[in-house]
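quick one, 388 residues, struct below
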Amino acid sequence: MNMMVTVHGTSIKKWLVFILFTFMGTLTVVATMTATSTYRLSSSSVHEVANQFSTESLVHLLSFENVYFRQTLPKDKQQFPYSQYFFQMTTSVNLNDPRSLLGRELPGFSLYDSEIILAGEGTDFTNIPYESPPPLEVLLAEREAAQEQLHEEEAPPAPAPSQTTGGKKVVYIYHTHTQESYLPALKGVTNPNFAHHPTVNVTKVGKKLGEELEKRGIGTVVDTTDFIGKLLKNNMEYYQAYDMSRKTVVEAMANNRDVQYLIDIHRDSRRRNDTTVTINGVDYARVSFIIGGENAKYEKNLQLVTKLHEMLEKKYPGLSRGTFEKKGVGTNGKFNQDLSENAILIEFGGVDNTFQELYRTAAAVADVFSEYYWQAEKVNATQPAEKK
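---
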């Protein structure tokens, strides 16, 4: 009787292996045969299926033929939950993560697939940053801007910086979602989904950040190319904005070998209570750092923004909402950050922040960034030159 159970068990395991590899082979063949078809498997679809097969599960499958494979796994991983695994593989529902079920059933819930790497004050999964793509008619609509909102607060003349980059433009600022704007600057607009404008938008924040960096001796280029306007002109989709901005960034880097840092400025879609902080009795727009989880320079990018977040927390407590990783279906996953180890995506404020609050934040970010920059330059200057 025991021999019969063992034989049947072995047969079942072999059939599972056969079915698994047959399925993967069929998927590959179908993807290849439909490569030129109008209706075909997308790379994201194949990627999502492939992600179901972990290294651990593959080792267990191989151990059906040779038990010694299983010994390479940690002791707590040598027993494999086959029923739970195949349930997850066939339904895409992870019993240990309710988001895998709810994300498919509730509109907008998939945004919680973002990971919180570093959480700022008050940040959790209920208020993580997100950007809401606007309807086409919103981008095409003409809106009157409240120009008085753009006025800057008077400040005493800045002293000459003690050190400069000697005329070199080492920072490149651009704005992939160029027309993201803020409700207080848009007359008669109260719907957060309509917070977009062709000229009064995040480029104003980029210009302010560039000015503040220049005051601190850091040569900066601020590119105000309207990538969203280009998308509309070429009948392209909103999600293709990164393809559009990437071409400009690559060209800029090729034309200026001095560029060391890339900063892409965006705006969060969260409301005021999540995107505003009071420091020493003055309101600031909070910032969030976004990391593309599918970019080849992820680790270096993460080291940079981690340091900036920590420095902001020390000097301007509560200004940073934290660092967030975004990847997978429905998001770009790279955000041009694979172009440089020093690529940064910063979301300045939310739809309800005023430009006065944003300008204060731009000055604060420039203050911390310049401190980081000059420290890094000092370290680089003391390192021996690489042998050619």
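The domain at 114-151+164-382 is CATH 3.40.630.40 (Aminopeptidase).
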